[in-house]
Design goal:
single chain; 8 helices; globular
């Protein structure tokens, strides 16, 4: 039987979350109550016991309502690989009938990704990693861990107006758990970044800034605080970074580079926001620089 969770289910669901997410009981209970919300968790009951669960967390994309399907877990012996697609299919049908516009989820592995395709999911935000050395600048100034979650969400919507957003209460719990695991926020009036350290590398989960100079300042300030020499930045494939020299990091495949190499007399012009322009980016020998870049801050018209 599939039903909504109640407060009485919390101990059993906490144990499921601990096993699936390798979390401690405090973080597991915090995620269930404050990120997912017990009222948004579906429980598969078997012989009177909680055998599996799936959270359907309300999210927004602009003015559109959606659900984030996450937190799937089951007790040992429950065939989640067969059950989960059926539970998700039921969720999609029910929430679609209730007026929700979209659903979003993240597969744990390639097999789960194939299951999601059969339910109509498409890969919209494949990620890539950019690695860049960080220049040393003893005068780089920035604040650390000074942004409240409310302010962070406000600034994120300035740089990413169309991002999928969780309720602020859920973000509070998420950020609290990330802080416990070593997350640091670096910010200036012109941008912010979320990162943690791994050896001599800063792992940036998010880096948003008005332009390449402002982003570089955030990297340099974080370097001076941590001593790290390199940065790894996670980017979605629909984000494009430009170098000051005109080299572009795009979708891969080399189609435009091959075409421009064969037709060198074409003028090249690229469009981007100014926060998508970085001073440093790794490129290959076959990458063809663009001649002109037209950019403007978010919300302003390029001139």
């Amino acid at each position: 039987m599939l039903r909504k969770a109640t407060a009485d289910d919390l101990p059993a669901l906490t144990a499921l979350r601990c096993g699936a997410a390798k979390a401690n009981p405090v973080d597991a209970a915090g995620w269930l109550q404050n990120v997912a919300g017990l009222e948004n968790i579906l429980v598969l009951e078997k012989n009177g016991q909680s055998a599996a669960m799936l959270a359907a967390v309300p999210v927004k994309y602009g003015q559109h309502r959606g659900v984030w399907l996450c937190g799937a877990a089951g007790v040992q012996g429950v065939p989640m690989d067969r059950l989960l697609p059926k539970i998700m299919e039921g969720c999609l049908r029910a929430y679609g009938a209730s007026g929700f516009d979209f659903a979003v989820t993240t597969p744990d592995d390639a097999r789960r990704a194939e299951d999601l395709k059969t339910l109509g999911f498409k890969s919209q935000l494949p990620l890539r990693v950019i690695q860049t050395p960080i220049r040393r600048d003893l005068f780089a100034q920035a604040a650390f861990d000074s942004l409240t979650v409310h302010k962070l969400l406000e600034r994120r919507h300035i740089y990413q107006p169309g991002c999928i957003s969780l309720p602020e209460e859920a973000m509070n719990e998420t950020m609290t758990q990330l802080y416990r695991r070593g997350l640091t926020v670096v910010s200036t009036r012109r941008g912010y970044g979320l990162y943690f350290t791994k050896g001599d590398t800063l792992q940036f989960l998010e880096l948003q800034a008005d332009n390449d100079h402002c982003a570089d300042q955030l990297l340099q300030a974080a370097r001076e605080k941590t001593g790290a020499a390199n940065a790894r930045i996670l980017l979605a494939e629909n984000q494009t970074l430009y170098l000051g020299s005109g080299r572009r990091c795009g979708y891969g495949g080399g189609f435009y580079d091959r075409y421009l190499a064969e037709h060198p007399h074409h003028a090249t012009l690229a469009l981007c926001y100014d926060f998508q322009m970085f001073a440093h980016l790794e490129t290959d020998s076959y990458d063809v620089p663009v001649q002109y870049v037209l950019s403007a801050p978010v919300g302003e018209v390029a001139k």
